[in-house]
Amino acid sequence: MELNLLTICYLIGSITFIIGLKMLSNPATARRGNLIAAAGMAIAIIGTIFLYQSEGQKLHNYGWIFGGLLIGGIIGTLAAKKVKMTAMPEMVSMFNGMGGACAALISLVEFNHLSKEMAKGIVTAGAEQPTVLIIVLGLIIGSVSFAGSMIAWGKLNGTVKDFSFAGQNILNLLILAVTLATGAYLVYSPIHPQLLYIILVLALLYGVFFVMPIGGADMPVVISLLNSFTGVAAACGGFLYDNKVMLTGGILVGAAGTLLTILMCKAMNRSLMNVLIGSFGVNKNAATHGGSGEQGQIKEISVSDAAMVMNYANKVMVVPGYGLAVAQAQHVCHELEKILEEKGVELKYAIHPVAGRMPGHMNVLLAEADVPYEKLLEMEEANEEFKTCDVVLVLGANDVVNPAAKNDPSSPIYGMPILEVELAKTVIVNKRSMKPGYAGIENSLFFQPKTSMLFGDAKKVLQDLCAEVKML
Amino acid sequence: MHNLLNWVSANQQIIYIVILMIFVGIEVIGRVPSVLHTPLMSGANAIHGVVIIGAIIVMGKAEPDNYLALVLGFLAVIVGTLNVVGGFVVTDRMLEMFRKKK
């Protein structure tokens, strides 16, 4: 009876995961989808705690289980509630790493258990080969996901710098090969339990080296990929315990995550291989040196002049980027929009799909400041409208408006679709400094005659602009 | 090799589930607009937190004198819960922003 009930719990869990994921991919139902999946997860967890039986025995150690759930639950809720909008991507990466760590820990305990039984002669080594294979796979994938996610987390919050050296790709492949070979050997002869710890260390090392050389701008893609890894690691647990909800949930995320990774790469018009091998890092120096020589002069504009230009424009397009998110300037930006509209200026936002640090980052940010949905134009729409704009105000965006993506085949971002802001009559670019953007390449837009630079922190500049426009 | 073949036929149900789930996973998110990439990734991240069930089983099966299993299992339950709870809450917060648009 109880086991049948548990089966039903798991069935509900699996179905809600599929429905939840389906609803999450539609803006109208996304939030409900998330809640449905969460409810299904709760049912599956509670069912496991109270109904699970292993060889006719119920689970014990309830104190430990509830203690762990309580600690994890409180820290998780607080961290997720307190995190700033700009830091959400790294939060996702952190949570993903936790999932990977969980899978790796399960493998460690289960292997220990198994090798004890083998030592006592309860089970024979040969018959357990498939189980060992699953354990080793779970350990490797989980550890890579954990270490990789932690590095991605560090990169996004700025504590870990890009780091690459000649031959790194070869070293990476070597580490991976040794890890897999050791794993295969352990599966072949599971009588050397210490090997498991060597595999653990190697897999962690591989995770670190795998993410290290990849540029910070590509972290969303990497996190999405590691996300699908963790899914597969969770599915290994499903194999291990013959647990259908872990299996369906894990494989579902593994497949959906892989597709999502590819979709994200497509939004940047790059291949996954291109991201992973880290062509950004390799080409970085060449591109900066090649570009900077013949660029010419930049033109600065004062806040009051910029306010004047915008005040007398008919139509202004704002191009938000990571600079806006860092400065937390979305509310001031919305205020400027309202002031300008009172003065009869039409104002819209042009959203590049990968502006900011994650796809959709800008939508979320501007929605937080109550900017109406109709004002946000997607890239194709915006590119149609730029030619009718008098002023384009670029707020801390760089690579997504870099014409090199269109006309410089040697540029590492060549081929990425961009916002063609240079079609407008004037372009005002707000940046903190002339430093290149995340891709590490110069932007010829800044040197064009119709472009003027407005240096400073986005929030401060926007506040000043608001004050100036009000006075006009 | 013989073991592996035996195992495949003994676990054919599971193998069928895996194959079907791969197709479901791809099909289900095939038409997602790019604005939802981040929340979808975050939501998927929370769903693979289902690995917590494995952690609970490990913890619940550990003998009271097996300190290694107890400690590692306890850690696994904590980090697994972090993944699940944090994942769903962060996704909800992201999507809350979208809802306000209307």
Outline the structure in words.
- The complex is a heterodimer of chains A (472) and B (102).
- Helices cover 62% and strands 7% of the residues of chain A.
- With 472 residues, chain A is an alpha/beta fold.
- Chain A folds into two domains: 87-277, no CATH class; 296-471, Rossmann fold (3-Layer(aba) Sandwich).
- In chain A, strand 6 (391-395), helix 17 (404-407) and strand 7 form a beta-alpha-beta unit.
- In chain A, helix 4 runs antiparallel to helix 5 (129-156), helix 4 (88-120) packs parallel to helix 8 (219-241) and helix 8 (219-241) runs antiparallel to helix 9.
- The radius of gyration of chain A is 26 Å and the shape is elongated.
- Mean pLDDT of chain A is 87; it is low at 279-294.
- Chain B has 102 residues and is mainly α.
- Chain B has two domains: 1-31; 33-102.
- Chain B contains five helices and no strands.
- In chain B, helix 3 (37-47) packs antiparallel against helix 5 and helix 4 (52-61) packs antiparallel against helix 5.
- The N and C termini of chain B lie far apart (60 Å).
- The model of chain B has no long low-confidence stretch (mean pLDDT 89).
- The interface between A and B is large, with 119 and 83 residues.
Low-confidence stretches of chain B: none
How many E-type strands of chain A?
A: 8
In what order do the strands lie side by side in the largest sheet of chain A?
5-4-3-6-7-8
Distance between the termini of chain A: 77 Å
Number of helices of chain B: 5
**Alpha-beta classification of chain B:** mainly alpha
